[in-house]
């Protein structure tokens, strides 16, 4: 539920915070005081469109923030959630969920499961025909869900096979063209006889060839320095130390070290001589290396960034060639599998249809009873269930809510009802019946009392209170009968300060609530209207 709503710089609202509660929260006030701006702010935080004209005069941004408690939700957020949206005159939008920046679409997706705003001409879910089947299935408790889970797995496999057939089933000319290309590519890769590490080896050999003269020159210099100087010098040093090795043990140790160095240098000399012999390359050998590298580079441009990728691609080519060459048998097997799956899907779909037809009649009876309670005895609600030819995510069924508001009139889709008062009561009846099914935690009703009065208004109030037992309800109203039903009542007013008009909101205590009900009922507050307000409150 919404714990706190914070609004800044929206229309005549300067900066207000509203603490809402569980149950039925009633918002009243004089026309133009800012009630609509509060609903507009909830639309904004739900990802709705925003007009720059809504930014308070003299300010360059508007800001809306709500703090909510969501113990269970689809987004796997457990506990307190803070959602904010800041909009600037420049058009820049900043949306956050628990401090994390999100896009407007992400914000809208999150909030649609949290907040449902119903005004006279709009609704976020009940007017969406795609939601009707969800509501109907929600009435089935767990009866339908095992079938839906089974169908969902079949439907996924069904789409995978269809894609596979589409990929493999083409005309003969097209398949032959693809086969020719694949065989050419396969032959080109196979003829190259690539080895995983050979590119590095060839690059290393080419580097040596390109620097062979430099390598040979410096190897000769190193070998000359060792042979002409180092070996002779160490040899003379050994002879000198041999003359005194018996005088002191340390001289003998030094002599041993010198001999070890002498043997190591001799070994180095032989290595340098061998390296120098390897530094000369035949020109034909060099050409072969260049040609081999050219082949590898060409294949890399065509088939992958490395020899590993080229060989992997060649494996895929071979698999594709095998599929095409055996395509008729392969596709026939897929078609047979698809036929079996379609038979299973149709069976499960028919089982779901039977459950939906049963629950459609239950839903119709309940909603028609609600409509009668709401002073619409001639209205008839029905659930239109049709089976389509193509399989969809919910089976073969198409569900649409239909309504006729007067005797003798044809039923029409719910979204095409013209009268605002009738639409409000129809929506309220449906929401009351589906309160257990609807997962939205907070429902907002903006002037749902439009076009009604008397007993119908009293019935609307009762229905709102019924919904508020399972959902947090925020309701803007002009009728005393409805205001009297509130668990919590708020008064919205406006006043001029420093040549500016600004909105304020106050949570009313019981005595203030009775005075407000009296004001709404007659426009005047006196003993008679106060007594009437107390009676309405007592009945509620």
Description:
The chain has 540 residues and is an alpha/beta fold. The protein folds into 2 domains: 1-123 and 438-540, P-loop containing nucleotide triphosphate hydrolases (Rossmann fold); 173-325, no CATH class. The chain is built from 16 helices and 15 strands. The strands form 3 sheets. Strands 2-1-4-5-6-7 form a 6-stranded antiparallel beta sheet. Strands 8-12-13-3-14-15 form a 6-stranded mixed beta sheet. The mean pLDDT is 85.
In short:
The chain is of the alpha/beta class and 540 residues long.
What proportion of the residues form beta strands (DSSP E)?
Answer: 15-25%
**Overall residue-averaged pLDDT value:** 85
CATH superfamily of the largest domain: P-loop containing nucleotide triphosphate hydrolases
CATH class of the largest domain: Alpha Beta
Question: Count of DSSP helices?
Answer: 16
Q: Whole-number radius of gyration? A: 42 Å
Q: Low-confidence parts, pLDDT < 50 over ≥5 residues?
A: none
How far the N terminus sits from the C terminus, by CA atoms, comes to 23 Å
| Oligomeric form | single chain
CATH architectural group of the largest domain: 3-Layer(aba) Sandwich
Main beta sheet, described? 6 strands, antiparallel
**Which structural class fits the helix and strand makeup?**
alpha/beta
Share of helical residues? 40-55%
Spatial strand sequence of the major β-sheet: 2-1-4-5-6-7
Per DSSP E runs of 2 or more residues, the count of β-strands stands at 15
